[in-house]
Specification:
- Helices cover about 50% and strands about 5% of the residues.
- It contains 16 helices and 3 strands.
- The protein has helices at about 10-15, 25-40, 50-60, 70-90, 105-110, 115-125, 130-135, 140-155, 185-200, 200-215, 220-225, 255-270, 295-315, 320-335, 340-345, 350-365; strands at about 230, 240-245, 250-255.
Amino acid sequence: MAILSEQSTSSLKIRNNLELSDSVDMNDLQLRIDQAEKEHQSKYVYFNDKDMVNWFLHENKHLRKSDGRTKRSTKEYQRELQQFIEALLAHGSEFNLDIEEIVEGSIFKSLQPRHIRKYQEWLQTSSPYVRRNGSYATATLERKTTILRSFFRFLHEADYITEQLEQGLKIIYTKKDDRPNRDLGPEDVVKLLRKFQDMQHHVMFAIVHILTTTGMRNEEFCTLKVKDLKRDTINGGWYLAVTGKGNKRRDIPVKSKVLDSILLLRNARGLTSLDVANGDSPLFTTNTGNAYTPPYLSQYVKKEIQKIKAQTLGDTEVTITPHVFRHAFAIISQQNGIDVYQIMRSLGHEKIDTTMIYLQKVFERNKHAIHKWKSEKFGEFI
């Protein structure tokens, strides 16, 4: 372990070589790959660990850049890999990272599956986050594991490492009971809207109204520009041209009262009218005039709803974030008799299984056997 100790020259050199940043010269990396190809050498022979991480994060496999991984996804992958690297360098002794020799100056080439197994167990049971906050949510561990597995497979398939490190990762998946309760029905949504309306809290009224009636993701709401609100020349009215996960676009019709809420939010923020606003400016902004970021929007919504939650919704156990209103869109749509496939398309889901997660509890309750009981079979008690 001394070779990865905080004070060792080797550790400091490796640490410096693995500091990730948003600024990556992909042209330089491509030139090195081209040079290796000219020399009939292994594709990544001129890469070090940091280069491999950057190529994994930023390589564009698509002819159109817009078809690749989104900036947010890239940032999430980068954050997880940086945390993994930092854990190896700073906390390796805590999970017995028994590396005797650094192979070719590379941490990744020096690891074996047992190290990954020990890291995953430490992450779940005694990492700094766990010591501070308690256990990770199962969905978080699943996401971290998925990212690491994908990265290790990339390294092995690229012949950069010889060990199949992903074999050290234990399987984890989110079961139904592991998922947080995000179900909010139409009655509770209406209670929130009425409360914010009574308070003349125009911003929160508009946010709740827009998110519920469009089913947009947090990030989709935050990245909308003025030019994304378009006239519907086919059906009349308006629609939002939304860019979702994987840069996939979909059109969301905007009801007249929802359009009123969009205008209400912009007016509350002191923004110019839509007919003269710059098309590339944010459709929705904070009180500073800047576009919302997903973390800020989530924090703002939770904070404002917490102020009125007890008096408006009672003792509901739901932690209300912007994503809850996406669930509400699915639930209200199902209660209005809309087909699950149509709800899936409207939400921008690629798989119907994802939509069914949103509606699982609704279906369980609606399809319960008790609804088929005939009153004459059980007398006055049902």
